[in-house]
Amino acid sequence: xxxxxxxxxxxxxxxxxxxxGHDDVEGRGGVHVWIFAEKTQQLxxxxxxxxxxxLWDASTAAIIISPHSPLTTARRKLQQELGVTLAEDAFEFIxxxxxxxxxxxxxxxxxxxxxxxxxxxxxxxxxxxxxxxxRENVSSVKYxxxxxxxxxxAKNDPHYVPYDVHGQYAQLFEIITKRYQENxxxxxxxxxxxxxxxxxxxxxxxLTGLSDSDKDALALIVKAAAVIDEIFYVQxxxxxxxxxxxxxxxxxxxxxxxxxxxxxxxxKSPWSSLDKDEAFLTSADSAIKVLPNATTKTVTAWKGLExxxxxxxxxxxxxxxxxxxxxxxxxxxWKGNLDKDQQKEATGFxxxxxxxxxxxxxNDLHVVxxxxxxxSLLAKAADLLHKAGDITTSLSLKRLLHAKAxxxxxxxxxxxxxxxMDLDSKLDVTIGPYETYEDKLFGxxxxxxxxxxxxDDKATAQLKLFGDSMxxxxxxxxxxxxxxxxDVSAAPIRVIQLIYNAGDVKGPQxxxxxxxxxxxxxxxRGTSMVMLKNxxxxxxxxxxxxxxxxxxxxEQQELVDFESFFTHTICHECVHGxxxxxxxxxxxxKSTVRLELQEFYSAIEExxxxxxxxxALRFLISKGLLSESxxxxxxxxxLAGCFRSVRFGLEEAHGKGQALQFNWIHxxxxxxxxxxxxxxxxxxxxxxxVESLSREILTIQAKGDKQAAASLLDxxxxxxxxxxxxxxxxxxxxxxxxxxxxxxxxxxx
Length: 749
What we know:
Helices cover about 45% and strands about 20% of the residues. The chain is globular, with a radius of gyration of 28 Å. GO terms for molecular function: dipeptidyl-peptidase activity; metal ion binding.
């Protein structure tokens, strides 16, 4: 098991709890829980009898009996053995290990089982008199300094159940030591360095084109977007809102706390988007919560159990869309027992998967629609949108706001997405659940986001060519004609000056988006694109040009220009609307690329949009629809953009997709690395490299070939030596990785 089916790093461990209080039962692994008191730096140990001859052991340990989950087993076992009832957010998964059983008590003949290890961090020790001991398993409890306990294990003290503190189990003690013996100065400097990767930028636009009524509506829409922000914090991780409030409350207490809060606001979680989603905070930084009735016994003058709301070191693949201890196999087994309509709900954009809390069978998963899961917040946002819709003078905006408000409460977003595509308003609004990047387990579930801007009418008019060329591009895509669609709609493109965003806008900022993702609408109406021009300008000036000066060969640096950067971004978004979406599998079954590629979909789709977008630019030039002057500038600007996007990290879809493209083109000779560590475009080879990769990705999507997608990303979606050198050079001169926007509009309204 472990958190949300994330990849395990395990090694064989000999010794440790071999019975867990169950005899001769078929288990699905084991679970260990260690209760750690922060103030005294002590671990709670229990003295076990039965098969352990009175040896001291973990706070609790148990075999996971199918169909129960690891976390549920841990909670139940603590309650049974010690009379302690803890909330889910008290348990921090820290690692898994394989354990070689001796056969004692279970007669398993040396069988290996997997164990999940959880840490519970309390502030003070739980009073010993508060425990209610299960006498058939536990005879006594005591607290011991974690350092003393590690020393006892290292010496193989015969009074303690053995754990290999020189192997995988050393992690328990290393984690505690690192958290509570940290160098504050070093951590402050490290956080400041992480923050410096983002260049602050102010994004604003003139509101003179808005009527007074629309300005009033804008204020209400921004308030609704702030509610959307709250929903996203919940979607990211269930204890995330508590962490947010805690960090905000304590931000002024020290320079370190201020930096924690500043970097948290960028990432909107304890995990750093630019560092492979590794935590820059620990549970020791987290919110303190109180459980007044955590134990069955009442202790005089004890106000209750104070604990740290936990989160794992590595970001959970499931975010908060699925139970934290559910893996892919469990989900697929459950889904296989559902009828077709129920399966559609389970894999749909707008629902979460939960366990029945009062069920004895905690494998009893069920679907909860967003309209129910986030009911109070969505009702608040809907009310604000209805009020804004009542006062705006734009008929299309009025329709959108009312339709979106209704969708929040009904969970049916079809009509509101159609209204969004038809939007023709100076005040441009995108709000709702759209992208699925946060669901790294399957790529099914959509996060809430909001983008509010002022339409740039002149720039919008200039881009009509691209939207009108969608069918032409579809018919000429470099893939088998059998996979091409005969009916692709023109794609409306809107250019806006962004004045506010919220929700899933963490880490690197997007420069454009193509929506909706509903395959029904894509098939019937196509998609619409929104270009965030002021965001693109900021990134080009603050990031892309400095990257080009360092990484692109000197003789080609003058070929990096904003027009090519902006135009390729347009084609990137256009290409999201063409190519395979709804597909027919080899067995004749209808499906979608998203459902078939699952967790690989996002990276493959972003790579497709990039590389096929580059192909599309060259195609439009060849048809005389774009200027020949773009031929060289588009390739060199794309090269500079490769280094920009790879810096987002391979955990991010755009970053992994960009690594795939760079490495493929480099292998085919389209990019050439020089002795001075710069890279140039080989114009005689890049066209074939771009077309061959476009064909490869489009064919994978058309076939719904998940294994081929995985193989392609495994081989090419990596940091190769040329990328590693470029990233190191960029870090050395501290070129920003991305921007962090602030919005003056908040003060104006």
